[in-house]
Write a structure and sequence with these properties.
alpha/beta; Aspartate Aminotransferase, domain 2; 7-stranded mixed β-sheet; 4-stranded mixed β-sheet; 38% helix; binds pyridoxal-5'-phosphate
């Protein structure tokens, strides 16, 4: 069997039509397949490779850690320098109230940890989440994602979850002394990039404070400069009680985190002791890679250039078939009339060497979430291919 046949035979599939491109090399904002074909990457592994694929500083940090040690013991027992240094670096660039980092393996595990922590701290059970928000695929995270299509087959899920409309007054009113936490994305990514108003986010913060509910912000997709500021919550002048990170956190390696104040996080140390356990969370190689990637973001001008690159995409993506372009930094949704149109455009883009896809809760929207390293030249080329694909779609 060739590689493709083995992929379909032995690698578990969750879709009838996976992309099934065999990528053999990735560098910066480009990918190459087994036939040597080059692709401009507009997905970045779904908001993971913010500093580009295989950034030399990330590779160097990984190599160094490989020479020192890999896994030693379950999370939190040993003083592992990559973990300690990364926690310090992260908290140095967060508001002072977010000073304690629990590293996990993935975004979903960070969501799970945060929900447990909120219940433990408040002694309450209700979790408020939002329609068309995505938070992960484990059963707790699945319980709070905002689309019944994905939840239905796996019920019963967690009880006492309230799903409300993002950016709605109704949601603010629903938060009470019964609410353990409110979990929100600062920008709803998988809905097709929807940014709530600043006033709403501030009202959310205020109501949580008044009722004693913890505000959990899921920056797993929006973090690390994606929206033009290091953290998207900065744009709303608010601070969450718990911050969720993942994706770009590991610089291309698997890593998640929930971050809170030491006083809040301290509840995981008793009743029960070891309130959250993970074997591999905060793996030294992943922390070394993530720390190096964050240093790249802080040192280079990638984050400062996001808004300019966003503006270039918006300027170039003009076509009567495009119904809307919604964006927040280099998180851009190009909306078409239907999934069918979008699929034709996406297929053509991939054939022409531009890798893109759609959003989980917005199948009619084309995803543009490239590495922040994408150059103006690559942006122009990608937009030319997208517009060409739109023009060709009616002939297909
Ligand atoms: N939260 C958001 C906003 C996400 O976009 C994702 C993944 O796409 C997750 C949570 C879950 O992260 P993971 O896939 O690492 O479990």
């Amino acid at each position: 069997m060739n590689q493709r046949e083995l992929f379909f035979r032995h690698v578990a599939q969750t879709s009838a039509a996976p992309l099934a491109l065999e990528i053999v090399k990735a560098e910066g904002s480009r990918l190459w397949d087994a036939d040597g074909k080059e692709y401009i990457d507009l997905i970045a592994g779904i908001s993971v490779c913010n500093v580009g694929h295989r950034h030399p500083r990330v590779i160097k940090a990984i190599r160094k850690q490989l020479d020192d040690y890999l896994h030693i013991l379950v999370y939190g027992e040993m003083i592992e320098s990559p973990q300690v240094q990364y926690a310090k670096l992260l908290t140095d660039h967060l508001p002072g109230s977010l000073d304690s980092v629990y590293f996990t393996n993935s975004g979903a595990e960070a969501v799970e940890g945060a929900m447990k922590l909120a219940k433990r701290v408040t002694g309450r059970t209700q979790v408020i989440a939002f329609n068309q928000s995505y938070h992960g695929s484990t059963q707790g995270a699945l319980s709070i994602i905002g689309d019944e299509y994905w939840r239905r087959a796996f019920r019963p899920l967690l009880p006492d979850i309230l799903h409300l409309e993002h950016n709605s007054l109704e949601a603010i009113e629903a938060i009470t002394e019964r609410t353990a936490c409110v979990i929100a994305e600062p920008v709803q990514a998988e809905r097709g990039v929807y940014t709530p108003s600043k006033a709403w986010m501030q009202a959310l913060r205020k109501k949580c404070t008044e009722t004693g509910a913890l505000l959990v912000l899921d920056e797993i997709q929006t973090g690390f400069g994606r929206t033009g500021t290091l953290w998207a919550f900065e744009q709303f002048n608010i601070t969450p009680d718990i911050l969720l990170l993942g994706k770009a956190l590991g610089g291309g390696m698997p890593l998640g985190a929930f971050i809170a104040g030491k006083d809040i996080m301290g509840h995981l140390t008793d009743n029960p002791v070891l309130g959250h356990i993970t074997t591999f969370g905060g793996h030294p190689v992943c922390c070394a890679a993530g720390g190096a990637a964050l240093k790249v973001l802080l040192k280079e001008t990638l984050v400062q250039e996001v808004k300019k690159k966003e503006a270039l995409f918006i300027k170039l993506l003009q076509h009567p078939a495009i119904k809307a372009v919604r964006s927040n930094g280099l998180m851009i949704a190009v909306e078409f009339d239907s999934y069918e149109t979008n699929k034709k455009v996406i297929d053509r883009c991939i054939a022409e060497g531009v890798l893109t896809d759609w959003f989980l809760f917005a199948a009619n929207c084309l995803r543009i979430v490239p590495p922040l390293t994408i150059s103006p030249k690559e942006i122009k080329r990608a937009c030319k291919v997208i517009l060409g694909a739109i023009n060709l779609r009616s002939l297909q």
